[in-house]
Amino acid sequence: MDRTVPSRPPAPPARPPSAAGLAPPGGGRPAAPPPVHHTLICVALPFLAISTEHGQLDGHGLEGVYQSGRRLLARCRLRVAGSEPVAVQGALVTADRARFLAVVRTPNDPGPDPGVGVERSRAADGTERITLRSFTGRTVRLPVEIELGTDLAGLGAVAAGRPGPELRATVHDSGMRWSAADGAHTVVTADPPPKDTLASAGLLRWELELRPGSVRTIELRVRSGGPVRPAGRNGGHHVPDAQAEGDDPRVARLLRTAVEDLRALLLRDPDHPADLHLAAGVPWRCGPASAESLWAARMALPLGTRLAADTLRALSRVQLSGPGPAAGRVPGPLRDAGPHLPPACTGVEATLAFPAVLAEARRWGLPDQDLEELLPAAERCLGWLRNAAGESGLLRDPGPTGLRRADTQAHAHRAALLGADLLEACGRPGADWWRDWASALRHRFRKEFWLDDRAGGRPVAGRALDGSALPHLGASAAHLLDTGLLGGGRPAQGLLDKVQTEQLARLLGGPALDSGWGLRGLGAKEPGHNPFGHRSGAVRVHETAVAVSGLAAAGYEKEAASLLRGLLDAAEAFAYRLPEMYAGQQRTTDGAPAAHPAACRPAAVASAAVVQLLTTLAGIRPDVPARSVALHPMRSAPLGAIRLSGLRVAGGPFAVRVSRTGLGMVEEAPPGLQLGV
User: 501-506 contacts: CB < 8 A, separation 24 or more?
Assistant: First the structure.
């Protein structure tokens, strides 16, 4: 979870509140969010259901069912035959549903074996099915009661330890209703209707008869206001059912989970309901984040271009206009950048990503009408870059620090090259100027942002206003290898020369950065290293995926394969739902990656990174305007044979297979595309 500092640009449409950064009563230090790494989070935005493994909702911490950032239900405690069932298992079944198993001993059980099984299936929208099964040879009558309660508090207030008083319930239809002073309300209904309803205690009661081997089910439904349909219910157009299979059986579940989570994180633009884009992550950032939304849409391009188009469209609507140095920039908050750097502006990152994502979406088959609509916004982004870089040709942070970050120069270089390609293809002026600008940036960067030493040198993280170097080494250096695709599926020219690229590959694959589970945010030997620091040592899945694809494209497959295997092993430890980050502790033979207690899980960039990682194995390089698509698979085949299907190129289905010997073959493609390896 990134710590953010609000910036001045106009805010996008209202979204569910974030829990991060809320000040406690009386001011002072912002309250730390409670740990969520042991919770089960069902997601189908704008709905969340947060549970512990035993399945009872006790109202502790973040537990409950939420809609648009408001807790609709805080308590849902089940008692059978006067006692709580003994929990035996709890796990996510899909992104939006969890399953809990428990058992109950009845007075008629002759020995220690439980005679009744209880299964609870809880969905993100609060719908819950409670199924009781008889394992005995005689008929039993069981009193069943469910204790309900809520505070209708906001997620941010709950996370800050200020949930508010529990509200008094009233009887409503076949259940209960709660109302808050601000007019908000929630209703829980039950089917079959309860025998008794005690609103003052929040109790619903039944008397159930279970014959030998029989099953009885109670269904609860939580509602607030009119019907709300999660955006992901129609998410197949934006995130299709891509599948993976291969020698390593883990890839199938990894991709399936990533696709489910991407759909679950889809949000509908309230002012333009047809447009969907991704929330940053759950539970702390259930709203859009400009830079991360673009990164996720870019990494998910193998699933189609519709998500990228909608994301770009949403950001173009809030792009700053009018005179002044900010014209053309996409707004975004400041983001903490670790112990050695001042906060970074995510709006700058999003502005530089905009033309690059549009250019690459065009290669994957973005429809012409979308391209025509979005091209002016991309030109405004390039115009901002031209004005912001000025005569120096290097991009400085806005504000008094004037820091020139190395990764920002990499983003600017990619925007210039891919922007030039886009302008030329669309018959717009300026392509040659941007290529010359990028060439000058490469020449200057190789001199000013590289420190020579006896070990072969290293890139600097940035240059301060006085020209001094910030020499610490971290995962952000991976962005220096991220170039993007030009016409003919060619990678854009790299920011570093051949010798520097080789040295950077060695550093990224070395033990200081490669933890064995992925790439550390800050090298283990650097001052201020903290394996749990979200920008000072933790493994961030997005940056590791950038490193894997960049290393593979540059021909350094050994280093790429090591990082790829580390992420796959980490994914297995996290039940294939990768968090946005986890601890960068060194891997041991009998260990597992340590969770970061405040990490979003699922997170858009982590889920989309899975798509990029697996498609990197096949090296898919489309050029739909030229009616071609080529494969450049990793020859080392680090995961053995793999087959990917359900991808999208030119709007049609695309499937590819890579053999154990690293040979690639297109198995399915839209008609009219020339295929090559």
Answer: 501/554, 502/556, 503/456, 503/457, 503/458, 504/458, 504/459, 504/477, 504/480, 505/481, 505/551, 505/554, 505/556, 505/559, 506/456, 506/559
Amino acid identity, position 304: G
Instruction: Specify the 3-state DSSP secondary structure of 172.
Output: strand
Q: Among residues 66, 43, 92, 51, which one has the least CA distance to residue 233? A: 43
Q: Tokens standing for 388?
A: 């912001």
Q: How far apart are CA 388 and CA 376, in angstroms?
A: 18
Residues listed for the chain: 677
* Alpha-carbon distance values, 206 to 80, 126, 133, 189, 196 (Å): 10, 20, 15, 14, 7
pLDDT band of residue 226 (cuts 50, 70, 90) is confident
Spatial distance between the Cα atoms of 223 and 147, rounded to a whole number of angstroms: 17
Tokens 């695309």 correspond to 654
Strands 243-246 and 266-269 come out as unpaired
488 Ramachandran zone, left/alpha/beta (phi>0; psi -120 to 50): left
Report the 10 Å Cβ neighbour count for 399.
Answer: 12
Helix H segments across 207-289? 250-264
* DSSP E strand stretches across 462-591: 462-463, 469-470, 539-540, 581-582
Q: What confidence tier does 30 reach under pLDDT thresholds 50, 70, 90?
A: low
Strand stretches in 241-374, DSSP E: 243-246, 266-269, 272-278, 334-335, 344-345
Q: Name the 3-class secondary structure at 185.
A: strand
DSSP helix/strand/coil, 236: helix
β-bridge mates for residue 58, sequence order: 75
Q: Where are the domains of the chain?
A: 47-229, 232-676
Output the CA–CA distances (angstroms, integers) from residue 406 to 328, 394, 412, 444, in the order listed. 22, 10, 10, 12
**Number of DSSP helices (H) and strands (E) in the chain, helices first:** 12, 36
Q: Report residue 677's pLDDT band, with 50, 70 and 90 as the boundaries.
A: low
Query: How does DSSP classify residue 488?
Result: G
Q: Which of 475, 616, 612 is nearest to 538 (CA)?
A: 475
Q: Which two tokens stand for residue 638?
A: 């680090």
* pLDDT confidence band for 29 (50 / 70 / 90): low
Burial class of residue 292, CB neighbours in 10 A (0-12, 13-18, 19+):
buried
Beta-bridge partners for 143: 207
What dotted CATH number matches 47-229? 2.70.98.40
**Sequence-ordered strand ranges (E) for 376-511:** 404-405, 450-451, 458-459, 462-463, 469-470
pLDDT tens sequence across 539-564: 999 999 999 999 999 999 999 999 99
Fold of 232-676: Glycosyltransferase (1.50.10)
Paired tokens of 323: 């005179």
**What distance in Å separates the CA atoms of residue 225 and residue 85, rounded to the nearest whole number?**
32
Cα–Cα distance measured from residue 661 to residue 274, given in angstroms and rounded to the nearest whole number: 44
Picking from 220, 47, 227, the residue whose alpha carbon sits closest to that of residue 128 is 220
